[in-house]
């Protein structure tokens, strides 16, 4: 059978021709590509200046990675900048960032204990203090070298105009100073506030262009957001004063609204703020300590009409007006303001990135148009030899798919001429915009009528795939029945009688799944099948893992049914994942194939595509939220470490439990004694319902009403900024998906550029020329390269 050949259809004016692939890569170059080391510029057969080729190569790499071209262009700085921007250095920087952030899990008090419940007095693993300080010191030294190198490449004059550069540098210097004081003078006995830990997320934000843009989007409408929050607080304060008038404190009735909720201005404001979050509704409207926790907003009106006026039916009007104005008007205004701030954020970000790419492509061509030799020029022309362009394309670090296609177009152009002009160069470099994952591959070889090809046609058919999906869902159903029966039957013989046939049926399905993967890989070809979709790789891993676990289980127990030892472990409630449980857990992963049935209609495709792309491309938003979450967790540790332990000791001494309190609800595992526990506690508060229980507990533990501000500010940030950012992100992507659906384009893509591709317009040449003329280190002004001078 003849070998299979593949071509790619690229959205250009040329027709799809077989791609001239690059020659085999040597082992040395494979290692270079794997580690992300910059390629050497091989100009042995070229008389052009090495500095010219290096500058053009760096500009082309800037275009590939959407980077700015504002950096120094002398030979030494170009060499440093190229290494600094290489994949190797960026990976090392991300590793340093990850290590620096993860130190919070290991630092005293560490998060490595079985439980965080203060009643059990958890025995934490204590990691060597000196080792942790050495690791942190190395990361801080790396950050200092990183920012100093970046500043040197950009120039101090331009770096000092960038806020995040200055913030990164100041925080790095402060962190190093505090680190030195801690390790040299104070040592591990210090239990005070360590500010450098709170500032750690800034290192991550500075290293992400999208995170900085997300924060800039917030900053753009920050005053409006603050005004809306201030309006909400003013609304709460006004109604707090009115509540004190309407429900005066009673000396005779202890459980009245005035005595219970509005005894003072502080209590009145706090209770209405909690009501604003609907967490204590309708308790605040009822006399006495009635336990109504976790009430959903949808049933508030019903509860108000039926219970709120136990003393006077007109009392309900106060709470109705407060809730309607606060929740249904002011809160929606805040949502609209934040949504507007991020509306079009992705599109604007992509347009700016597109401008940087086009500017870098133009700069690389303009540099090649005029050789740079010691600040002088040799010749003046509007074209560039194709052979020189091929040198910089092969020297630049870019995706092999793009490199092959660009070289192919240059090779085709060489049949017509030996030089290339700006329009041809720009058009060819537009191949960088093409996403290889969306390029349709065309099978040159057609299947014949012989028996082997007929079997391949079966493996490629949608019916075969649908049958496998139905079997996968059947396997999930059988596994669910097995797990359910294990918990329903305590007698082993009766359990085996109920599940033995199901176990053998599931075993046969495991064998079929492996056969299905082998059949598909053989039909499509292993290379194409596994590289075409990550889902195929995941499906193969799950299928083989299930079969291997099933074989091991059969070898040990002799039957696919649950063993008596596994049943005993379950009945004794031992928290241990047995081999049988691991097998069923892996079996349940086949439920993901249900997603294949979801995109049955265009509307469902839009929803599924929105969810998938929000997860894929929401890293900037989630990174900003994570940064604030991280810093706030560390701040909570510094402020409230040991507070829950003191509260527990006090409760043991008094032995008094008040209904609905932190102590009565057994919330003891929630605290700020370690980083992981702080993360979980803030998450529980973020759920909103009963968040005031945490506020009351920590206010009692610290004997300070000021501790409430920590939790109130967290609630305001989550409800006004965090959740609304996610809403804006979802709405923006959904609208873009709708436009793509109306234009009959692919809905599930891999990056934001493909989502907004149809809405991206090419930047005007005048804008590009203006940006080139503003370059601080190269003079492009004299007819664009009739006299380029490095400054």
TrEMBL record:
Xref: Pfam families: Ion_trans (PF00520)
Domain Ion transport: 122-342, 462-740
Protein name as it appears in the record: Ion transport domain-containing protein
Record-level Gene Ontology MF annotations: intracellularly phosphatidylinositol-3,5-bisphosphate-gated monatomic cation channel activity; ligand-gated sodium channel activity; voltage-gated channel activity
Species assigned in the record: Rotaria sordida
Domain of life: Eukaryota
Phylogenetic classification of the source organism: Eukaryota, Metazoa, Spiralia, Gnathifera, Rotifera
Subcellular location: Membrane
PANTHER family given in the database record: TWO PORE CALCIUM CHANNEL PROTEIN 2, TWO PORE CHANNEL PROTEIN 2
Keywords tagged on the record: Membrane, Transmembrane, Transmembrane helix
InterPro entries xrefs: Ion_trans_dom, TPC2, Volt_channel_dom_sf
Topology term for the membrane: Multi-pass membrane protein
Transmembrane intervals: 126-145, 165-190, 222-247, 316-339, 463-483, 495-515, 536-556, 615-632, 675-697, 709-730
Ion transport keyword on record: no
The keyword Signal is annotated on this UniProt entry: no
Gene Ontology BP, a term: calcium-mediated signaling
Matching Gene3D superfamilies: 1.10.287.70, Voltage-gated potassium channels. Chain C (1.20.120.350)
Gene Ontology cellular-component annotations: lysosomal membrane
């Amino acid at each position: 059978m003849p070998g299979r050949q593949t071509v790619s259809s690229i959205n250009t004016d040329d027709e799809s021709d077989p791609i001239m692939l690059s020659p085999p890569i040597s082992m040395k170059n494979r290692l270079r590509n794997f580690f992300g080391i910059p390629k050497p510029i091989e100009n042995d057969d070229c008389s052009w200046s090495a500095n010219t080729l290096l500058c053009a190569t760096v500009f082309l790499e800037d275009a590939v990675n959407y980077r700015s071209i504002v950096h120094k262009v002398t030979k030494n700085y170009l060499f440093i900048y190229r290494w600094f921007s290489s994949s190797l250095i960026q990976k090392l920087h991300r590793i340093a960032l990850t290590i620096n952030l993860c130190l919070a899990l290991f630092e005293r008090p560490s998060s490595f204990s079985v439980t965080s419940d203060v009643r059990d007095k958890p025995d934490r693993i204590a990691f060597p203090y000196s080792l942790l300080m050495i690791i942190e010191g190395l990361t801080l030294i790396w950050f200092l070298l990183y920012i100093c190198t970046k500043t040197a490449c950009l120039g101090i004059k331009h770096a000092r105009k960038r806020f995040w550069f200055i913030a990164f540098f100041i925080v790095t210097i402060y962190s190093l100073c505090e680190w030195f004081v801690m390790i040299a003078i104070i040592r591990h006995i210090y239990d005070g506030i360590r500010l450098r830990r709170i500032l750690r997320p800034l290192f991550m934000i500075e290293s992400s262009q999208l995170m900085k843009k997300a924060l800039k989007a917030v900053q753009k409408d920050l005053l409006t957001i603050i005004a809306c929050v201030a309006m909400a607080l003013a609304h709460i304060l006004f109604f707090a004063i009115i509540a004190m008038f309407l429900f005066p404190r009673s000396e005779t009735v202890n459980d009245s609204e005035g005595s219970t909720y509005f005894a003072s201005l502080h209590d009145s404001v706090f209770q209405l703020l909690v009501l604003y979050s609907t967490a204590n509704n309708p308790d605040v409207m009822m006399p006495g300590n009635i336990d109504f926790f976790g009430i959903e907003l949808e049933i508030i009106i019903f509860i108000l009409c039926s219970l709120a006026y136990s003393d006077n039916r007109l009392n309900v009007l106060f709470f109705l007006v407060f809730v309607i104005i606060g929740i249904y008007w002011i809160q929606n205004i805040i949502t609209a303001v934040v949504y507007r701030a991020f509306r079009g954020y992705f599109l604007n970000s992509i347009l700016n990135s597109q401008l940087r790419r086009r500017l870098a492509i133009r700069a690389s061509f303009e540099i090649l148009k005029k050789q740079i030799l010691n600040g002088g020029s040799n010749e003046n022309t509007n074209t560039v030899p194709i052979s020189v362009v091929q040198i910089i394309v092969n020297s630049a670090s870019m995706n092999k798919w793009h490199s092959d296609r660009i070289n192919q177009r240059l090779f085709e152009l060489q049949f017509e001429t030996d030089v290339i002009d700006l329009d041809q160069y720009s058009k060819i470099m537009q191949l960088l915009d093409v996403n290889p994952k969306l390029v349709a591959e065309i099978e040159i070889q057609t299947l014949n009528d012989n028996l082997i090809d007929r079997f391949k046609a079966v493996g490629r058919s949608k019916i075969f795939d649908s049958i496998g999906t139905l079997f996968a869902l059947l396997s999930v159903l059988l596994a669910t029945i097995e797990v359910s029966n294990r918990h329903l039957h305590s007698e082993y013989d009766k359990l085996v009688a109920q599940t033995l046939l199901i176990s053998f049926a599931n075993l046969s399905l495991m064998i079929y799944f492996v056969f299905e993967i082998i059949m598909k890989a053989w039909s499509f070809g292993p290379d194409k099948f596994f590289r075409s979709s990550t889902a195929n790789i995941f499906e193969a891993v799950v299928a083989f893992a299930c079969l291997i676990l099933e074989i091991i289980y059969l070898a040990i127990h002799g039957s696919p049914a649950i063993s008596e030892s596994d049943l005993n472990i379950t009945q004794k409630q031992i928290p241990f994942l047995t081999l049988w449980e691991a097998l069923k857990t892996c079996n349940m992963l086949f439920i993901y194939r249900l997603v294949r049935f979801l995109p049955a209609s265009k509307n469902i495709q839009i929803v599924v595509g929105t969810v998938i792309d929000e997860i894929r491309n929401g890293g900037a938003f989630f990174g900003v939220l994570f940064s604030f979450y991280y810093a706030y967790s560390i701040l909570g540790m510094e402020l409230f470490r040991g507070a829950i332990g003191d509260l527990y000791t006090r409760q043991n001494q008094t032995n008094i439990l008040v209904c609905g309190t932190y102590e009565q609800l057994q919330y003891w595992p929630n605290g700020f004694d370690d980083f992981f526990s702080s993360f979980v506690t803030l998450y529980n508060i973020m759920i909103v319902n009963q968040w005031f229980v945490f506020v009351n507990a920590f206010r009692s533990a610290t004997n300070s009403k000021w501790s409430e501000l920590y939790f109130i500010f967290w609630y305001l940030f989550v409800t006004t900024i965090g959740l609304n950012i996610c809403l804006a992100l979802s709405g923006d992507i959904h609208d873009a998906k709708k436009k793509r659906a109306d234009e009959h384009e692919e809905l599930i893509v891999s990056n934001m550029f493909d989502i907004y591709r149809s809405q991206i317009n090419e930047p005007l040449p005048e804008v590009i020329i203006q940006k080139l003329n503003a370059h601080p280190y190269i003079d492009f002004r004299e007819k664009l390269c009739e006299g380029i001078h490095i400054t």
